[in-house]
Amino acid sequence: MINKEPQLRVGVLEEYGEVKGSFNGVFVDPDGTRREGDFTCRPAGDGIHVVFPKDGSELRTATTTLTPATPDASFVLHDVAIGLKFHWERKESQTFRGALQLLARPGKGITAINVVPLEEYLKSVISSEMSATAPAALLQAQAITSRSWLVAMLERAAEEGHTPRAATPFDSTTSELIRWYSREDHDLFDVCADDHCQRYQGVTKITSPAVTSAIEETRGVFLVHQGRICDARFYKACGGLTEEFANCWEDDRQIPYLHSIADARTALLPITSEEQMRAWVTSSPDAFCNTRDASILLHVLPSFDQETTDFFRWKVVYSRTELEDLLLRKSGIKFGTLRALVPVDRGPSGRIVRLRIEGSERTITVGKELEVRRWLSPTHLYSSAFVVDTERDAAGIPQRFTLLGAGWGHGVGLCQIGAAVMAVEGYYAEEIVRHYFRGADVKRLY
Ligand SMILES: [Zn+2]
Ligand SMILES: [Zn+2]
């Protein structure tokens, strides 16, 4: 395990034809050359060409890392795309602390990486994910969880190497497509600045004093299990029961502190049958995350549309043709006339691990939960914990599919809305993380 604060390599820009920015204060090259003012970086040959108009100097190299000469120095990158891979996109200038690495990938333009101390990074990401008015215990629980998750990922990457997996081959004979996505999909840096990992906007957005003190009070504090930092996953709302790690990611990794638990004061039975699942999604169990209290939801969802508070239990309706079009668009597969959506197996939280999609032309079993959520929604379904009601015409052809579901996210580890409710009810940060990560210890490592 670590004994000092790690540095995180965050991919801020990728595949840019040109990167423009400026230094606030003095930065230095690896050879000690001082760099100040504006800069422009373009690909040149196998490397990069950086121009500094202030003193007319330039630099041709494979890669360079510019390090702040003083702690208060920062740098700005212009035209940073936000939410590129998701449904919204805008560009803005962003300010970063820490070092800037610039490099070119052959044929793929410039990559800009921010090398930032872990605690500084946490202040930024937690400030943009959580409201400044959230209770201290919630912010501290989130800080301990995010810190542990990040460093567990760094340690795993150091052991196994960054190895992006090849896409699963898929052809006309394939009948099953089971995929999951890990954060180790980046080879040049540890995390990207996009929603794929965690949205990171540097210090552009002022970090809140509440978040800053939650990070400082828990500085170096991690969830630890059997001498290792915990792979502490989190998501928005479990729906009453949390999910097993192996049902969302690798089957062969049994992680004791990521087993399914009842997110409640009292016992809730794990889902083991379709009948039980139907009763579950149509009921309102007394779980921590069963709240519509907007003031609590805003702690975890600062910019969330308050009209949409129905994610503990939710409903999505598609006409058959609507769903056929959606499936074609999202999966690239022509199912023909849709006949049925059949859950093949579920985890204890009710999340579907494998779903069989039956059509007149193709029948395919898809998994795991994230792939199911992607295929069945223009963006992402709230979760894969749903039952399907199918309305058919006289000839038995489906006309409408109604999905009745529970929870928001993969359901493994800490439930953010449950944690927010616990914090409001007076639980301490350590009690909250121990509730979700059973058997894990809380330890300060630096
Ligand atoms: Zn990423
Ligand atoms: Zn929950």
3D structure, described in words:
The chain has 446 residues and is α+β, with helices and mostly antiparallel strands. Helix content is 22%, strand content 32%. It is built from nine helices and 23 strands. It has helices spanning 118-129, 136-160, 209-217, 274-281, 294-300, 320-331, 369-375, 416-424, 429-436; strands at residues 7-16, 19-28, 34-44, 47-52, 57-61, 63-68, 74-82, 90-96, 99-104, 110-117, 176-178, 191-192, 221-225, 228-229, 234-235, 313-319, 338-346, 352-359, 363-367, 386-392, 398-406, 414-415, 441-444. Strands 1, 2, 3, 4, 5, 6, 7, 8, 9, 10 and 12 form an eleven-stranded mixed beta sheet that branches. Strands 11-19-18-17 form a four-stranded mixed beta sheet. Strands 14-13-23 form a three-stranded antiparallel beta sheet. A hairpin with a 5-residue loop joins strand 9 (99-104) and strand 10. The longest helix is centred in the first third of the chain and has 25 residues, at 136-160. The model has no long low-confidence stretch (mean pLDDT 91).
